Amino acid sequence: MNGRRVRAIAVKEALQVWRDPRSLAVALLMPFMQLVLLGYGVSLDIKHVPLCVYDQEMSQQSRAVVDGFVSSGWFRLARALPNEAAIRTAMNRDQCSAVLVIPADFSRRLAMTGRATLQGIFDATDVNTTNIAMGYAAGATAQLQSTFEAKYAAAHGLTPSAVGSVDLEPSTWFNETLDSRNFIIPGVVAVILALVGAQLTSLTISREWERGTMEQLISTPVTTLELMAGKLTPYFVIGLADAAFCLGAAIFWFKVPFRGDVSTLFVTTALFILVVLGFGYLISVRVRSQLGASQIALLVTLLPTTLLSGYTFPLDQMPAPIRAISLVVYARYYVSILRGLFLKGSGLADLAAPLAGLCVSALIILWLAARAFHKRLD
Amino acid sequence: MSDDGTVVEARSLSKTFGRLAAVRSATFAVSRGEIFGLVGPDGAGKTTIMRMLAGVLRPDEGDIRVDGVEVLREPERAKRHLSYMPQRFGLYEDLTVGENIFFYGELFGVTKTERQERTSRLLEAAGLVPFQRRLAGQLSGGMKQKLGLICALVHTPAVLLLDEPTTGVDPVSRREFWSILYDLRETGVTILLSTAYMDEAERCSRLALLSAGAIRYCDTPARLKEQMPGALVSIPSSDPRRVRALLSGQPGVLGVLLMGDRVHVRVDNRDRRTPELARLLAAQGLAGALIEPAEPGIEDVFVALLGGQEAA
Ligand SMILES: Nc1ncnc2c1ncn2[C@@H]1O[C@H](COP(=O)(O)OP(=O)(O)O)[C@@H](O)[C@H]1O
Ligand SMILES: [Mg+2]
Fold this sequence. Notes:
By secondary structure, chain A is of the alpha/beta class. Helices cover about 65% and strands about 10% of the residues of chain A.
């Protein structure tokens, strides 16, 4: 590796990014917008989720259920719905994000068996809100359970633990951990960095092909490794700046408590950025048009990182094959690391497993990226 | 460089794209200090040969040596000995003239003083001194090509590969371009260029005439002209197309070529055919047409030797 050549490539690339409005927008504007979209939308609106209620029973008991939901502070009663058809209308018109259906035999079942089921319907268009709303509904139902259990036990002369309870259907939607933005925001940071990082470098090689500068570049003695190192350097700096911005927003704006160690945060973040940049570079080598490369980078990053990184959907509740697939979604390791650092104040030793995952990802991706490019036209 | 002064040597180079044989068994050698021209119409395979010499395209068959280095075996080492200027402008349009030069200087490991000394001289010769801070994308076609040449010359290549360097370039820039090339030859740099301009081919020390991927003739311009069968007469005319139509296929006429407002007629025997042609033209109301003996240009030679279409 020749340092002068690496530096020359890095300087050239930095100048190009600086003069290219599109790259600049990806570098500076995208993290901000994503943060607003994913983070702000999620966390500040999330108190008082608009709730519609379709109460088929209209009894004192059923009204107590609704009161329970509302008094939790998580839900705001938007409308009472007269019939089944109104549910779809209300959802379609965005009048609520969740609908609580109380069956006509709710009280009767509760009185007879000590078990009754509520139905919760969630608007899944906004994944984040849905997840949080599901968590809240679970919480509200849990509170109801204890009230009703105590009542039922008293009425039947039993000890509360021996009684059944009120359920919210479907019960698989219960997700106790999704109860606060503290859990979501670190994941949001990981998703944003994965998206932005891959976008940034996805353009770097394809731009040379598209603009016809590659032919002359590969006729020089620059090595593929120098080219990669030089090209990744400016994006690494931009990535670190984006990370500082997002993590700063998480701590100071979203007020997520940070309990970990700053140097661990720095090292793991730098490692993660290397992985995402290498991934974008790999795509850029393979796809020779800028538009194609950036779209593939978006597609290949967005879906896996939002679905399989564990940032909203807990991985441990997924079927085994999907959990296996998620092992290659390198963002999951950084999500775990960030959650550990933020919420639990984990040290390096606690983070050994995800850190190892991240290191292996880095090795594999950078190795592939370094080998992918050939200084040839064919 | 080998003992006999050969700096570039290509042996039986072949390259096929799909079913198209773009280059067929091309063999040639270029000596130190030569300006060697690859001449041929579009699609003849000039770019493909240049790319293989530059080490950016692998031939299907053949061998290339550049400055003593086997290009196929050690392309990266060969690249330190050559500079390649592709046909399509290959510099960064969003970088300034100065930044482009600096970039290529760094890639070739040129020292700062060396770069400054060489660049100022080249910028001067190319008339680009006032434009150093201008973005390359905002230069005219001619200025871009000269900048390309400067970037290629920021280090000291043994071999300079120029693929149609003056296509679309204004005459003034072309003159400056060629004067830089001549100066360069004095310093012992070997220059390979491709061109579709026949007047430019004339300036080369040796030419390879390409047609459909094969090198058909390879010699100095003077000796190529000697190989042209027949002799040439030139007829100035206000309606050269009509003259061409009249004379094509007449006995003794081997070929007729339009050259601007003149018609070049290649005949088997100049002394015998000149009066015949004059009579023929007179019979068609073109009496008094001047029929002058002419020396062939490379274009005449090219068409005579390779037949087919007129080159650009
Ligand atoms: N990468 C390629 N893929 C397919 N065909 C090609 C490629 N490069 C060149 N050709 C074809 O090979 C032939 C020679 O092309 P080229 O070397 O560019 O000729 P020239 O430079 O003399 O115009 C042409 O018919 C061209 O279409
Ligand atoms: Mg060409």
